[in-house]
Amino acid sequence: MTPLPPRTLKLDALAGKRGEKLLFSGVSLTLAAGQVAELRGPNGAGKTTLLMIVAGVVRPAAGKVSIEGGDPEGRTETDIGYFAHRPAIKARLTVAENLRFWAALNGNPPESILPALETVGLAPIADLDAGNLSAGQTRRLALARLIVSDRPIWLMDEPTAALDAQGEALVAKLIDAHLDRGGLVLAATHHELGLAHPSQTLVLGQPLVAA
Q1: How far apart are CA 46 and CA 17, in angstroms?
Q2: How far apart are CA 87 and CA 83, in angstroms?
Q3: Cα–Cα dist 184/191, whole Å
Q4: What does the pLDDT look like over 119-171, one tens digit per residue?
Q5: Which residues, at least 6 apart from 122, have a Cβ–Cβ distance to it below 8 Å?
Q6: H or E segment at 157?
């Protein structure tokens, strides 16, 4: 198992808005290599907004995100893998073609595609157009994208959504393996992830607690 480059993710007094509405403020968190935090809160509390701020997609209303051990210029694209609630796939490309595109974009060889598809259970339908996948299969393809991206920081938005019990177990297995390699995970979820590793829980509007 190849170790991932060690990173520490720090959120310092973050605030986030949707339009002019303040969703959350004063959110602070430190995650080091091998650590995971579950982000909780009701719909509309700003969980997705917080993940997008950490990913650099949305600017914070206040506060700062920093990654220690990464690019000194502050670029996050080589450190963060973002598993969004809406998987970005090209429906007219096959499962394999989607993953091949993503691997090439992230500088990984095409040989990484088949092992990733086998891990998520999609190898038998690698030549199927992605537009024909079920919701659960689409989520599995998005998980395969995380695998071939090989980034130390995983941001995950409802990673078990649309998955059956077997798929939920797969998510837990992948996260635990990522942590074993020295990665770190921030996951927005309404459900217990069933991880072997201990996790922290950050409820928007409430203090951080250890699980």
Answers
A1: 8
A2: 7
A3: 19
A4: 999 999 999 999 999 999 999 999 999 999 999 999 999 999 999 999 999 99
A5: 95, 137, 140, 141, 144
A6: strand 153-157
Within 8 A by CB and 6+ apart from 175, the residues are 36, 154, 156, 159, 185, 187, 193, 195, 197
Instruction: Name the token pair of 34.
Output: 């091998």
Q: Which two tokens stand for residue 119?
A: 């891990």
CA pair distance 16, 52, nearest whole angstrom: 10
Q: What angle do CA 154, 160, 173 make, to 5 degrees?
A: 65
Q: Is the pTM of this model over 0.85?
A: yes
Q: How far apart are CA 112 and CA 86, in angstroms?
A: 23
Determine the pLDDT at residue 201.
Answer: 93
Tell me the helix, strand and coil percentages in the chain, rounded to 5.
30, 25, 40
Q: What are phi and psi of 52, to 5 degrees?
A: -70, -35
